[in-house]
Design brief:
homodimer; three-stranded antiparallel beta sheet
């Protein structure tokens, strides 16, 4: 028996805006949330901060991450802050317990409290602070929409989306940063550009390539233990580079196909609906080898377990017809 | 900007099956989950166990509860088990941390681990065990569908729904108990009967009245601090008696109007969509006084806050036209 139903809008297209797949409303603007992080990280790279402070692949992947707050993630963020002469007190993302439950439990068992370093966005905040320090901008007000670092970020994101910063509707994200909205159609274009590095200025392409290489080299630092994004990048050997966002957003750069795929779970049920929906779409697009589908099976049809560990149901995806 | 959309099916009707309101598909079966608990608690009362062990209003409300796992809830469940000569080891609901975060934090701070007593369904399990002990049924196998206590529960629920136990599709709930499905139309009938005590055998009506009185007298024990069900029963002085279920189900007995209202959030987004949707429906039905609407305002349009505590959005409900 079907108990609950998540509706999904999705769109796959190339750098010319040609759509390979479309389902649902792809022309209404949607907040891209953390699916914008690879482009935000690229703005940090484009600022010159990554070269100046010698950020390695782990640090760049963590700047683009929604991480689990595992000890290795926290260490990397602490390291970024040390390199730029700041500490956790400079992070204005707020505090939440590590997303990875065993990491949260270990913290509690050690009698420690979560800090801003454990926030899933702490790497992004540290990266933006690095750009501020490098460019001589005020690090105390880095979350303000009119701060020059946020304007640089929005401008790079807008170029990737094929629009202008002024045209982007902006709200406030869960971590306090300005968050912009774009139609799924434009987001798919941006992810196609991320996949191919085509249709971009040389500087933007180089910055996005640096971020992409880091995410491919260090997928654990993009998310963490048990997470879909880490598993998908790792299993495909970086042929697919992806990033989840809150409220059910997912962006996928399909490098072999030269496509960007973007998914939005309409009701925002991110936690459970993104992996099965994305897996079904990737399979529908022929973007996964059969061995990869097998390796990622647990994400395609996740069993639902109750508190006693008994399997009581399963999540399944039904794809509508292709566009 | 609208970021995410939850769809809701809902139905309000009287004991004759006459509908006052209907939206979405109300004829497909839906697992009622914990919205069935008042009827399950009534089966415990009807068994004679409540009279035999002298369960008071707090105990009966807790048997019908999805409680927060606050210390007072845990004490009541422990007390029920003591009265029937069992302990927490007899509970087969599994273990989860208290739903109320401060209670979970206090437990951790005291160096204690959550037990089955903290499971939101522990009261129901204790009540079912009470019926087993009273009737001489095996308490070790009380979760099996063919156990006589489960058959008695299903039979009472089926009578309230206007059907038979054999006709109810049955699955396994989050706490291991058999969970049945019914169309929203039938669930609204059952809640109308709970509201009016009409259309029932004398024995079923008496048992449901005992449960209803307990929920009205002790609404804290139906849910707990900050919870919508506790607030709605309390604020209306028990004129509305309600019970939430997992995956977005909510049942409301509107005693003044003689109506049952049942809500299902289609995507299962229970945590956030039930209170605003139910509030909009209750207001649409004229079931709330304006002072009550004011008192419950925080549930009607809950602000969404980020990790830093800043309000970044709000949940709002749009009612479709009445049936």
């Amino acid at each position: 028996m079907v108990e609950s139903v998540h509706r999904v809008a999705a769109c796959a297209g190339d750098v010319h805006g040609k759509l390979t797949y479309s389902a649902g409303d792809i022309d209404t603007t949607v907040y891209l949330r953390s699916a914008a992080k690879p482009f935000i990280a690229a703005a940090v790279v484009a600022s010159g901060a990554a070269a100046r402070f010698g950020f390695d692949a782990r640090e760049l992947a963590t700047i683009a991450a929604s991480h689990n707050g595992e000890p290795a993630h926290v260490d990397v963020v602490r390291g970024i802050l040390a390199k730029i002469g700041l500490d956790a007190g400079a992070l204005q993302c707020g505090v939440h317990a590590p997303s990875y439950e065993p990491a949260a439990a270990a913290l509690t068992a050690a009698g420690e409290r979560p800090s801003a370093l454990h926030h899933n966005c702490s790497g992004k905040h540290a990266g933006i602070l690095a750009a501020c320090v490098h460019l001589g901008f005020d690090p105390a007000t880095y979350l303000a929409l009119d701060h020059p670092v946020q304007q640089r970020i929005l401008e790079l994101c807008a170029r990737a989306l094929g629009t202008t910063a002024e045209a982007l509707p902006v709200g406030v994200d869960g971590c306090g940063i300005p968050v912009f909205a774009a139609p799924l159609r434009a987001a798919a274009l941006a992810y196609a550009r991320f996949a191919t590095l085509e249709g971009l200025s040389d500087a933007d392409a180089a910055a996005l390539e640096t971020v992409r290489r880091a995410m491919v080299e260090e997928p654990f630092f993009v998310a963490g233990t048990g997470r879909f994004d880490t598993a998908l990048i790792e299993t495909t050997g970086g042929r697919i580079v992806c990033k989840a966002g809150a409220e059910g957003v997912h962006g996928d750069a399909l490098r072999r196909e030269g496509l960007g795929l973007v998914v939005k779970v309409i009701d925002g049920g991110a936690g459970r609906a993104i992996p099965p929906a994305t897996m079904a779409l990737l399979e529908g697009l022929g973007a996964l080898e059969s061995s990869e589908s097998v390796a990622l099976e647990a994400f395609a049809a996740p069993p639902l377990r109750n508190a006693a560990g008994r399997v009581v149901g399963v999540l399944e995806t039904r794809l509508p017809a292709r566009a």
